[in-house]
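Bug #2210: token dump truncated for Chemotaxis protein CheX?
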Amino acid sequence: MNVEYINPFIAASRSVISQTTGFDPAIGQLYVKATPYTGDKVMIIIGLAGKIRGNVVVSFDYETAYKIVSAMMGGMPIQTLDEMSKSAIAELCNMILGNTATIFSKKNIHVDITPPTVLTGDNMQLSAAKSTVVCIPLILDDNAKIELDISYIEN
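Reproduced locally. Full output below:
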């Protein structure tokens, strides 16, 4: 996978997470996931269209989701993912991908994104047909982890 396509996701993720939560995510070791693969308990799926087609799945466990939503809401304790919490998580991911699309646009690469879809549950399995899935682990200050799984086909 072309690093020119990965770096915008990393830059946007670090910037948006830092601005909205105060966490300073470190980048873990990138790797390719075999498909099908299982995700954590909370997954947000956003589609990509334009020069790059595919999707991004942002996933984390419940505890990390609670920490993120709590930080986004000024430290209010969060112990469940109600509709407000899911909306906050979806908006965070929407902002990350919106910023990613803006970075691509500045490089004359047109990319559109779809609205986010939030999934929660156990043993969810994803398949990315005819795509390679690159995982970008983002490690938060307290070792909580967010994974960005990017699968795309270049037009």
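Output looks complete on our side. The first strand starts at residue 26 and ends at 27. Marking as cannot-reproduce; reopen if the truncation happens again.
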